Amino acid sequence: MDLDTLRMLFAPAGRAALDEAVRIIADGADPVAAASALRRSHSPELAAAALTQASLRRRAETKFGADAAVMFFTPHGLEQATRPEVAAHRAARISAAGLGAAGFEATGAGPTGVRPAGVPDGPTGGVRAAEGPRVLDVCCGIGGDLLALARAGCAVDALDLDPLTVEIARANAAALGLSSLVTVRTADAAAADPGEYDLLFADPARRGARGRTFDPMAYSPSWPVVLDLVARAPAACLKTAPGIPYEFIPEGAEAEWVSYRGEVKEAAIWTGMGTGGRRATLLPSGATLTASGAEADAGPVSRYLYEPDGAAVRAHLVAEVAALVSGHLVDPRIAYITGDRLVPTPWAACYEVTDVMPFSLKRLRAALRERRVGAVTIKKRGSAVDVERLRKDLRLSGSESVVIVLTRIEDRPFVLLCQPVTSQKG
Questions:
Q1: What residues does 237 pair with on adjacent strands?
Q2: Cys-Cys link to 401, which of 263, 338, 375, 382 (CB 3.0-4.6 A)?
Q3: Tens of pLDDT along 26-66?
Q4: 348-358 β-sheet, strand order
Q5: Quick one: which of 73, 75, 78, 70 has its CA closest to 15?
Q6: Which residues make Cβ contacts (< 8 Å) with residue 394, sequence separation at least 6?
Q7: By 3-state DSSP, what share of the chain in percent is helix, strand and coil, each rounded to 5?
Q8: Whole-angstrom Cα distance, residue 426 to residue 424?
Q9: Running DSSP on this structure, what letter comes out for residue 304?
Q10: Looking at residue 217, what DSSP letter applies?
Q11: pLDDT number for residue 125
């Protein structure tokens, strides 16, 4: 989709086509039938654009919920956009930080003060004063984070290099009634002056011509450019991939890993907000864990096995989790905790250990056959075993289920057979 096609969807005919496309897709029509139906009353170009946008809205429901019904997307923009729950968590931290912005008024439409044609401001629209800090959002994409920031009361000046995503971000702010707190413009992040704002928010693109990149030097803008912006900002929040190498985290910054319903979604690097060190956060509960200086010894496998949440693992807070459950590590280099007590915690999934044995396919297969196991969940840390190959080689047959944990203990491969214990994730 290009900018002209997007603007076609803003016009009355385009909005009618989009509404019709949404109804057709909701009725379950196949793509060919849907295209044929739309082309009876709309041009092929408009029909294709409406169907594409309707399909993206349908996909976006799992991430944006009810908001998806009025938002606009690109495939890449939808993929990279932060989940609203995670964005809201970050925005709440920024809003509560007391960064000292006075309220201001904004027309909310970008540098010209003009909203996207055909996209009326949402139900909470209208010019009003911002209550929170002034935020510069560079690399704003389709606007997922600027929406959360505005909803938290921040006044957001957002920019992106791509005119298409800039127009989409404007449209999304207008559709959700947030135009009075948001301006969006096409600009290069490297040329921005973060010193004019209370906080810099940066979400550099992590996808190039060859797909997703895990190297911060290949981000757009690159890591040195991002760090230069941070150095000139009173405070900053940088959204990064969870696997960011630790050496890229600026000295004195706080690195926060966020897990949503047990899945690590991202890391955020915070500067200028009086914090430092490492933090793990669980959503939707909001539980947080920071470094306490705890140390964990290693010892024999006990009755219970705890699998720490990935955010705690990424934040190097496994020892802190071990202290919470009065446990110890099964191996000094493996993020599995074991203990004799059952201690419910949101920071780890818990399993009751029934068997511990050195890894042997023949022995494992015999143990599962003896227990009439027909379904397994396989987990591993520190093991080189190919999980899918193992699943096939086990030749399962039976009505029982078990959790198989593959790990290493004192440089020897081991397998633990376990049963899950209800935990308080989240």
A1: 201, 270
A2: 375
A3: 888 787 888 888 898 899 999 999 999 999 999 999 999 99
A4: 328-329, 337-339, 304-308, 348-358, 412-421, 400-409, 373-381
A5: 70
A6: 361, 364, 365, 368, 376
A7: 35, 25, 40
A8: 7
A9: E
A10: G
A11: 36
- Six-digit token string for 352: 């009751």
Looking at residues 234-250, what average pLDDT do you find?
Answer: 93
Among 121, 124, 104, 138, smallest CA distance to 172 is for 121
> In what helix (H) or strand (E) does residue 374 lie, and over which residues does it extend?
strand 373-381
Q: Is the peptide bond before 123 cis (omega within 30 degrees of 0)?
A: no
Give the number of other Cβ atoms within 10 Å of residue 65's Cβ.
Answer: 12
CA distance readout (Å), 212 to 163, 190, 238? 22, 22, 18
Element at 166 (helix H, strand E): helix 163-175
The structure tokens listed for 315 are: 């934040």
Using CA atoms, how far apart are residues 268 and 239, in angstroms rounded to an integer? 5
What is the model's pLDDT at position 219?
84
Which strand (E) or helix (H) includes residue 314?
A: helix 310-314
Whole-prediction pTM: 0.86
Give me the residues paired with residue 337 across strands. Answer: 306, 329
Given a contact cutoff of 8 angstroms between Cβ atoms, the answer to whether 288 and 282 are in contact is yes
Strands (E), 175-287: 182-186, 199-202, 207-208, 211-212, 236-240, 254-260, 263-271, 277-283
* Amino acid letter, residue 155: A
Integer Cα distance of 46 and 6 in angstroms: 9
The C-alpha atoms of residue 263 and residue 348 are separated, in whole angstroms, by 12
- Asked whether 53 and 82 are in contact (CB, 8 A), the reply is no
- Asked whether 321 and 345 are in contact (CB, 8 A), the reply is yes
Alpha-carbon gap, residue 395 to 387, rounded angstroms: 13
Unique residue bearing structure tokens 């797909």: 211
Q: Check: CB of residue 353 under 8 Å from CB of residue 404.
A: no
